[in-house]
Amino acid sequence: MSGSQTLHVASKCVHRKYHFFAAIALSLLSLHAHAEWEVTDQGTLAEGATATAVSADGRTIIGQRIMAGDSNHAFKYVDGVMTDLGTLGGKHSNATAVSADGKVVLGVSERADGSYHAFRHVHGQGMVSLCTLGGNFSAVRASSSDGEVAVGESRLRNGETHAFKYTDQGGMQDLGTLPGGSRSFAYEVSADGVVVIGMADMANGDIHSFMHTDSKGMVDLGKVSEQGALSAPLLLLNSVRKHDS
Known about the structure:
Number of strands: 16
Structural class: mainly beta
CATH topology: Neuraminidase
CATH architecture: 6 Propeller
Oligomer: single chain
Radius of gyration: 17 Å
């Protein structure tokens, strides 16, 4: 095990504004979701709609759609029908991950107080906040195949950004950072929800990849390559570092 392995279970949701970070994350979450895709004409979903992910069975497409009143809402598209998933009380939301069967959708949504929270939307149950690690922002980047495990990043009370892993049993768990670093992001998780991967900064400013399991904690996989430096997660990490400095 290496790095700081702080366990944090979110006990309540906070209510503060952080529009700069949220704007970057909403756009880059979408960029990361389809940066490797090859576009094929399948007809039109709806005007102003951007698809971000598709379920393993291919039946459910999720994303974000421009709405009236200068707002954007997460959507789910199944068998030719687009469903507005709404928000957690604010104007904006974006769907970024979906379970294999398409029944669980996850993402990030603005709340009425201007903060942004990670959410999970279950068919027939609506949108629920996953809260934060104590700060005013959290967002889901990926989920396990059953949608029960979600990973992403969240602001802490001290303003730092840490990777998280969320389960109903454990709540939002702070995955910590690598030695000497202060920021980390999780952007993928294995189908069974056991292995999480992401990026984190080091004391000297370098960015390293990591893997995390509950048994081993955060393991350093080495410095990010030049090609990896162009990835959406790293662009997001660098943008937040510049803003916080």
